[in-house]
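FORM 7B: Structural annotation worksheet

SECTION A. Query
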Amino acid sequence: MPTADDPQFHAAVVSTTHLSPSLRRIRFALAEPAAFASSGDPDERLLIEFGDGHRRSYTVRRWDAGAGRLDIDFAVHAGGAAAEWARAAEPGMPVRLSHPKGWYRPPADARWQLLLADLSALPAAARIVERLPAGVETRLVAELPEPADEQDWDTAAELTVTWLHGTGNGHTPSALPRWLREHRLPEGPGYIWSAGETGASRQIRRHVRRDLGWATERFDIMGYWQADKERWLARYAEVEPQIEALTMNELSAGRSIDEVRDAVDDALEQAGL
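SECTION B. Predicted structure
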């Protein structure tokens, strides 16, 4: 039975733009734009259902409600069905889109922000940066395949950008967890937003929550994609009963959602995941 998260809005490609060696922007026109509504979150993502029925999650780079046009930046440097589709996309090609939702929630008292992103998260990080108000001290650390993938944005914030090249993004392990461990964070209340490969995101979350001791309302850390997904899924299938039993035991013991997630993360790491 379809759910509210299923793709249901019909759209079609109207144009494509080559942004960099690894990114291609595709603009879609919605068939019924009045029925589609932005979540208002700069990192909002939605499911795209392509013509062959496969689905992938992508960031809404820009939504123009008046024109009924929506931009999505596709990573095209690696293989995969969605990347192949994006490379071959032409005007008229149909898709279906789901409702968008986001996670970026900085506390009101945050005096500074740290954004960590690989290529898959760069469109969301860019949209966050463009919306930041004046006076917000922000550092973005972005991990890209090559220097030609770097971007410039207009922002009112006090922005510092650190580019990491040639690591992560399906080529090597991500350098973002190590960067975070090796750099001292600013003083005062802050906020961390991070998105990228799931294994790297788990390392970042563990460091922020356990080593730094941050409360969960001060960070939002998401896994956007899984490296070596086929191997991961095969191994997870072997340990899934144990993971489910652990989850139920932790919940039955009255653990908080974050404590349950910590226990599951530990079990996944011990299983080589």
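SECTION C. Observations
The longest strand covers residues 9-20. The chain has a mean pLDDT of 90.

SECTION D. Sign-off
Analyst initials: ____
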